[in-house]
Amino acid sequence: MTKKIKIVEVGPRDGLQNEKSFVATEDKLEFIRLLSETGLSTIEVTSFVRPDKIPQMKDAANLYPQVLKFTQEKGIATPCLVPNLKGLEVAKELGVTEISMFTATSSTFNQKNINATIEEAHARQIEVAKAALNEGMKVRGYLSTVFGCPYEKDIEDKDILDGIQRLLDLGCYEISLGDTIGVANPDQVKRITKLIAKNFDLKQMAMHFHDTEGMALANIYASLEEGIEVFDSSAAGLGGCPYAKGASGNVATDDVVNLLHKLGYETGVDMDKLHDASSFIISKIGHTAPSKFFQAYKGRK
Ligand code: HMG
Ligand code: MG
Fold first, then answer.
1. Tens digits of per-residue pLDDT, 270-289?
2. CA dihedral 22, 241, 39, 33 (to 10 degrees)
3. Cβ 248 vs Cβ 214: under 8 Å
4. Residue 229: which region, alpha, beta or left (left: phi > 0; alpha: psi -120 to 50)?
5. Domain limits at 279?
6. Is 241 a catalytic residue?
7. Residue 280 within any structural domain of the chain
8. Ligand 2 mean position to 1 CA, how many Å?
9. Average pLDDT over the chain, rounded to an integer
10. Ligand approaching nearest to the C-alpha of 50
11. Rounded average pLDDT over 137-148
12. Ligand 1 nearest atom to the CA of residue 247, by list position
């Protein structure tokens, strides 16, 4: 039987949040419409965060309801990042059905990113998760800086396990483990995944690799060998966190789908249609796509 792997498309959120020039709401909408045609089952749409901190997401309240036109009838999940109760209020009003909460293994990164230590973020998230679950929302958790931090040198195993436990205790159905600055290597990924498997159910874990050092695909291969079945990625390989210095794009959905299909996995994603979505967003942001496979595919067309 062909093994299924789930892709969580984070292009409209992580992919665009680091782009300097504002992408027009109508272009984001068309990008998401094209993504909704590809067979992807989850598209992370936007973030309800401070617009002065992440200006690219300032149109979240306008964008989200329009996205539902393409996603709702196909049953595509449309999670949005929510950092606090204020963000949750907006999400609730707009009918958001799934939120992602985010924290890190590193307090310094958390401070820069969300103005909270690990403890403060956890205290906030207890309230956010409770209120979201009461509303019937699904809650996903991100744990950033699992494989390295731009500010704190060593991430202890205990910090990773504690971070996962806390997010699970809040009621997250899945934890996405972030290589926020793209410094992981396959041996490290294997070691940490083995450690996590000893303590938790790997079926509740996803991997979120940034490709700063070009090792994301190797890290995905290592994760697959350890039994991970969910990967976050962004069309064309855009992305990065403005509060993670030097980090580049997410691993490209184009590259991940190509790898998975060549290894015999099923993703449900149509490569031609994915290429259309990636081409569209690249034409709007005015720089080349980091994705190797995107370039190769374009050359063959
Ligand atoms: P804060 O400054 O601590 O919030 O921000 P505050 O409660 O002190 O309020 C200060 C002001 O912000 C107030 O406005 C609030 O109303 C407003 P004022 O009264 O001064 O006019 N405010 C908000 N406005 C809009 N939406 C909100 C909100 N909350 C407060 N939700 C906060 C804390 C977390 C909101 C802020 O630091 C922030 O927005 N940070 C941006 C975080 C972010 O989006 N980072 C990128 C995504 S994370 C990532 O990329 C990593 C990931 O991909 C995984 C990986 O790669 O590892 C997920
Ligand atoms: Mg990220």
1. 999 999 999 999 999 988 99
2. -10
3. no
4. alpha
5. 6-300
6. yes
7. yes
8. 32
9. 96
10. 1
11. 98
12. 56
Centre of ligand 1 from the C-alpha of residue 82, in Å: 9
Question: Is residue 1 situated within a structural domain?
Answer: no
Number of domains the chain contains? 1
Going from the C-alpha of 292 to that of each of 18, 65, 220, 252, the distances in angstroms are 20, 33, 16, 8
Measuring CA to CA, which residue among 1, 3, 2, 12 is closest to residue 232? Answer: 12
Instruction: Please tell me the distance between residue 112's alpha carbon and the centre of ligand 2 in angstroms.
Output: 15
Q: What is the CATH number of the domain that holds 121?
A: 3.20.20.70
Residues with CB under 5 A from ligand 2 (ion): 14
Indicate the range of 6-10, 95-99, 236-240 predicted with least confidence: 236-240
pLDDT of residue 1: 64
The answer to whether residue 45 sits within a structural domain is: yes
CA distance 174 to 139: 8
Whether the pLDDT of residue 151 is over 70: the answer is yes
The pLDDT tens digits of the residues spanning 60-117 come to 999 999 999 999 999 999 999 999 999 999 999 999 999 999 999 999 999 999 999 9
Ligand 1: residue whose CA is nearest its atom 27: 49
